[in-house]
Amino acid sequence: MFAKETDNFMVAVQHALNQPIRTRCAELAVLLDRATLLELHNFFPILIDNIFGPQGTISWGLRTSTEENREDLRELHHFLSPCGPLFRLIYILLRDPNIKYEFSLTYLPTKIRQLLEHSSGNPFYSELVNLNPQSKQITSLLLNPFDYYFFHFAYHLVNPWQQRSGSLVTSWNTVYYVLCCDYILHFLPTDPNVKILPDIYYNGKNPNKHISPPSSSHNSPRGFSSKGLVSPIVFSKTVDDNNTVNLDRYHPRNEIWRSETVLTVFTDMWLCNDSVSQTVSNNELNDSFNKPISMRLYYNELPTGEYMRIVRVLIKQLHAFSDSSKCDDTNMSELKKISVPMIQGKFYAFLRNLIHRWPLDGSFRLVLELWLTYIQPWRYPATNLVKKINVTELNQDAEDVAFNSDKQNLHPTRDHLQFIAENLLCYVVIFEQLLPRFGRVDLVSPKMSLMLYRITKVFDQPNLPQFLKEIEQCVENRQPSPTHQKYAGFQSVLPSLSINNNWSTTLPASPIPHHAARNGNVSFLSSTVAPVDKKWSAITKQRIFDLEGPSFCYKPLFSNPPAQEIYELLSQIKKSQRLAYDLIRMKEQEEKELYSGFWGSIKYFLQSPASNDEFSLDDRKKVPIYLEVALGNLKDMFDITEEIFEDEPDTIKTANGNGFEMSHDFKFLTPEKVRSRVKTIKYEGDPDLIPIRSDENKFLVRTLYQISLQINENFGDRFYQLYHSPSYWGRFWRQILCPPITVHKYDKSIMGSPRVGVNLPPRISLRPWASYRFLGYLLFGGIVALLFGYRIDTYLAFLCSIYLLYKLMKAVPCGSSPMRHSYPTEGFGNISFNDSF
């Protein structure tokens, strides 16, 4: 009888799992409330596999469900929320501390697997490992239901089988992102008076002083101790102070073990991601070519925008979580104190590798804002952190770039000196790694100029340069000795800093820039720096040794005079500012000539030309302002008072003394060559998919695109016949339809992402109707028609008649006019005969 009821339950839940999302969540919630503990125990791993699809099977689409599917997002969010039906199931299973599930080690990052092999590994994993009784080797992790869920949830973001689906979603407000925000805010609370709900009792992680230590158990590796992240000594003092009767029930760790899990699992899974770090060996990379394509892409693809924003939310909350320990006297305070120090090394390695691999394009803003978030803990105090996640906000990731911000009063104080000292490499080395990057991009681009402005704004805020100079005095500036170079006990997983090896302050023979030659000899730091506090010396030296190894040569950021690279960047900013003004004048003149006068307005109304420029004129006008502020910030940061002039490209001397002009050598892509190609660069994708401009209505662009897409799908064959007809009506339709063209895209499903061409047939495009100028003329004409007593339908019919009459007249032949098309010449395939890149 019992077996029959169990079979009936499994049949019912399997039927529910095959339903659409809305029905599935509702039916599962009812079935889970009615099931027995044994049925829930057996069904739980099946449910988790069905939700996340860790082996590449069909999942619930947490990373593809966005606000566009509002009902699905709402149902999924309710079902998986911290107090929803799934967590009610988890807390029911936690009533039995013997319920455990195996989590494969292959899902863990390489660095974490290596950590488990050492007896001095992370104490969090000491009570989770599962040993083979014969070989004494770790075979898997044995997890309670709560841990099992969060390991799978965190792995879902880095799962190579799910990378493709996550990278295809343009909207970042997915249900997975919203759930991450909920879990981070719920299980890492900043308010000491807020308890993690529900208040449950689970003795599976409460160490008992009357029980023999877990290290003697056959399930724990030798040398491990089951104590968690917080020292048991702190707990023992708390227990003694409270004089509690039931030590199991009221053990302090019972209040924090869920926060331990969320903190450790999220940081380990996301910051030690193998697809970002350089820990993958050549053998593993070669072996990957024998694996399916989705697994091979894991070694080459960068994190998605959703990934970067989720990590940024975690960093913000950890800053507030750590800051709240100052006014927290609960058992959670000890975990808050170690939360940021425990991720410092992981985040530094993650960021260094990420910057090394990220392309030179506007998407780098995601990485930049993540870095700036981490190095500014004073911006995220516990009292000011916004805890409400507004899913309707269009761009929650956007930083306030206004010159008068509400957060201007949040600046570093001497209370933040310890954080700056412990993370000196994250300030200085990352800055030096980024500086050459801005020497290889076009600063006239609004995206690039904005990024440079953001960096200089952060580093020139009050007190920060002074604090960095003070701590830098504790670091000995020296070249590594042969003894250190031969040291084999440290294996760095960070990319080489060969890009900025010419940082002039590290090389005794570096030439002094002519701007600073009159200032005297180069010294390590300015004499205006306050006397150094020697207590930071041990911290900074130990950090450099731990993160970069004994052979690393620290390159100080501040010197007197400043490094030559600073002057080169200032000169480039000056030149880019002039070019930005020239470009603005040119575009203003183009618009004035194109749309001036009455006939120019009629021309735009009847046939609006699509601009190939990704940025509007208003965006272009912001560039000189960003560059001007960035120039002033850099000069103020490095105490530069002399005037900056535009320099000609320097002549690079070869080993034999022969010089050549770098800008004339085809092997070098200099900023001058980039700017010379600006006129030949053009958008080569689908014209209807050009990023929405500021002079267009976003809703209309998306709506009209869907309408035109539906029309083209239904009448595409007929359009093709009409367009290529040699008759008069063929000429008429060639005035209405967009000509066939060949667009290009990068196929990321193939190794190397080759550039491929796609032929677009004759088609209807309604995007010009989404222009604010078109809508303005249409509205103005409608008002005039109403004033003269005409109805709106009459007005619209008149416009259509005028438009068709205009096209009919243009279709009249006036000589030999071949059909327009942009297909590539036959025999040349996808070769593009232009100098764009």
Write the layout of secondary structure elements.
Blueprint: H1 2-17, H2 21-34, H3 37-52, H4 70-80, H5 85-93, E1 101-104, H6 110-116, E2 129-131, E3 138-143, H7 145-158, H8 163-167, H9 175-187, H10 232-242, H11 253-271, H12 282-288, H13 293-296, H14 305-323, H15 332-339, H16 344-357, H17 365-374, H18 417-422, H19 424-434, H20 446-459, H21 464-472, H22 482-485, H23 535-548, H24 564-595, H25 597-606, H26 617-637, E4 651-653, E5 659-661, H27 671-676, H28 698-723, H29 728-736, E6 741-746, E7 755-760, H30 772-787, H31 792-810
Antiparallel strand pairs: 1-3, 2-3, 4-5, 6-7
Helix pairs in contact: 1-2, 2-4, 3-5, 7-11, 9-14, 14-15, 14-17, 16-19, 20-26, 24-26, 28-29
Keywords: Membrane, Transmembrane, Transmembrane helix
Transmembrane segments: 774-806
InterPro entries: Sphingomy_SMPD4
